[in-house]
Amino acid sequence: MNETFAFSNALIRKPLTMIAQFFCDEGGKYQSGKLVSFVGLIASPPRLKDFDEEWKATLHSYELPAFHMMELADVHSAHGPKFPRDRTGPQTIEALEPFADCINKHLEVGLIQVWSVNAYVSMPTEAKARLGGSCNDPHYLAFIRGVLEAVNWIEAVDRLSVVCDDDKAKAWDFYLHYRAICDAVPELRKKLVALTFAQDENFPALQAADMVAFLSRKEALAEFQSKTSDWTPLFSYLTTDPEPSKGFMSWYRIFAGEKELLALANSLDKPLAGEKPSQRQKEKRASPDSSNAR
After folding, report:
1. pLDDT tens digit sequence for 195-248
2. Which of 97, 111, 168, 290 is deepest in the core (most CB within 10 A)?
3. What angle do CA 35, 36, 39 make, to 5 degrees?
4. In sequence order, what are the beta bridge partners of 149?
5. Whole-angstrom distance, CA of residue 48 vs CA of residue 274
6. Model pTM?
7. Strand pairing partners for 177?
């Protein structure tokens, strides 16, 4: 090699920092006085690549241009050969299971929050302040807590990029809250490297977060009303941690009704899910190619 271009041999190689991706979807409207959800899915770059490929392959086999849970949940509308018009609920769930398998096979952590709007609005101002919220829309508080939990999960040397589903009504306020937590907790400035707003048609993991958010709201509403949901079988199928040999996903959730919100306000020293990442999580992150189909 020409010595003029051999300077690369003298470069000092440094360990690469992993930038984990945190894909977020918010759902529900606080104006309705019912439920709002905030879901975040975490994946490292190698696992995200495999997830994207399998998700897109499944969409292709289903003849779907993209995954929109509200559309696919409507049994009276047709969406490709797997979702014919007037199909039954169980048929719809069976058709959706491969997408749940893809999530559990490739992604790493799922953080689920569903908040009762009425319970949050009726909380005393002091209790809201302790939770870190002020307005009557719990979406922003859920966003803050979700980001803090995601940062808590990644390793000390790693970084986190936050990708939110683009929503004109909320994007600017999410940005302001993101800036506020970085200013309030200076150590987060190094850990949080990006906040992005994206169209879910181009990001399979955002489509997956949309699926989880939809099912989570259905399940939380049923639990708050002491009822059963037609979607419970799929929610349970999706959010039950797979065996170590069959998947890498770990799920954490909080369904925050009045009782849960007050308890949360009184125990802010505890993580959202009540526990730190397990040794199993750290081990499985270190071996991204060892999983099998669920």
Report:
1. 999 999 999 999 999 999 999 999 999 998 888 899 999 999 999 988 877 778
2. 111
3. 135
4. none
5. 26
6. 0.82
7. none
